[in-house]
Amino acid sequence: MVLVLFVITLIAAAMLGVVYNVTKEPIEAAKTAKTTNALAQAMPKFDNNPATDTVTCMIDGMPIKVYKGTLGGEVSGYAVETMTKNGFGGEIKMMVGFKPDGEIVNIEVLQHGETPGLGSKMAEPGNVLLVSFQGKNPKDLKMSVRKDGGDIDVITASTISSRAYVDAVERGYKAFQNIALGGAAVNEQHAAQKEADTCKVVVVNEETGVYYDVEASAQGLVGPIRLVVRFSEDGIINDITVVEQNETEGYGARITDPNNAILASIKGEKACDLKWSFKSDGGSVDGISGATVTSKAYMQAVQSAYTAYQSYILKEQNNE
């Protein structure tokens, strides 16, 4: 019986290997054709092969690919293969085409798992999400859906899908900025990583679980703001303690209040799910009234702490 089972398993494995080899090239060819078609639909006219002129950059920990199109030797536009993990049905991938000045030409959805007849409408020509972006420059838009105070219309009964679509476009625009507009977002990312490299991470074992206390700092209105952010193992912000600050009494100094507006808006949230900008700008964070500079510094320190937390967790995983 053992011999029979072995022979059956061997034959099955061989058949799977044959099927894989037979279908590998057609699958890859289909993927390439889909990408080529999306480039043609999303970008301004080009006479080069954008697939041979690409740069991949990491935005929010995700690999985003930027294709450059040229016409007559001059840059005609860019296409960004972007993504989000926040869809109702999981990961969404799309191709966003930009003119050299950042105006969006078109958006082609490459992959999604959204509900048919609802969120799936994001892939239809002329859908309300596409119309909200097409012919506009993201720098002139509040990049969130209207019910969150932004400029983007939503697909009826598909708010989560609509938010995910906006998230992917915003990430694509960051990548476009990195490559086409001088790398402002990249510079910010490098600065955050540099700051995070100096952060101190302490592992705390308690009865309720394992926590990571990360000390980070940023320059406030008056001087440095130093705080400790406690993360749970799944990246939730459990608490933030300010250990040093010299901000204005009654204004920026309110960051020491245990229920200050910034902490209240992010405590208990997964850091990876937050948009690190103020709600007035379409983000996830409330600011302290009359203390914008202090609020931005506080938020910057928390971001540095989260980057340090991510780096620490990654090192732990690699050492296992």
User: SSE string, helix = H, strand = E?
Assistant: HEEEEEHHHEEEEHH
Query: Low-confidence parts, pLDDT < 50 over ≥5 residues?
Result: 184-190
Radius of gyration, in angstroms, nearest whole number: 23 Å
Tell me, briefly, the overall form.
globular
Structural class: alpha+beta
Task: Please tally the helical runs, counting DSSP H or I stretches of 4 or more residues.
Answer: 6
Overall mean confidence score, pLDDT:
86
Question: What does this entry look like structurally?
Answer:
The chain contains 6 helices and 9 strands, in the order αβββββαααββββαα. It folds into 2 domains: 41-181; 189-319, no CATH class. The chain has helices at residues 2-42, 128-133, 159-180, 184-196, 261-266, 292-319, and strands at residues 54-59, 62-71, 74-87, 90-98, 104-111, 200-206, 209-219, 224-232, 237-244. The longest helix has 41 residues, at 2-42. It is an alpha+beta fold. The radius of gyration is 23 Å and the shape is globular.
How do the helices and strands line up, and which of them pair or pack?
Blueprint (H helix, E strand, L loop, with lengths): L1 H41 L11 E6 L2 E10 L2 E14 L2 E9 L5 E8 L16 H6 L25 H22 L3 H13 L3 E7 L2 E11 L4 E9 L4 E8 L16 H6 L25 H28 L1
Antiparallel strand pairs: 1-2, 2-3, 3-4, 4-5, 6-7, 7-8, 8-9
Nutshell version of this structure?
This protein has 320 residues and is of the alpha+beta class. It has two domains: 41-181; 189-319, no CATH class. 36% of the residues lie in helices and 26% in strands.
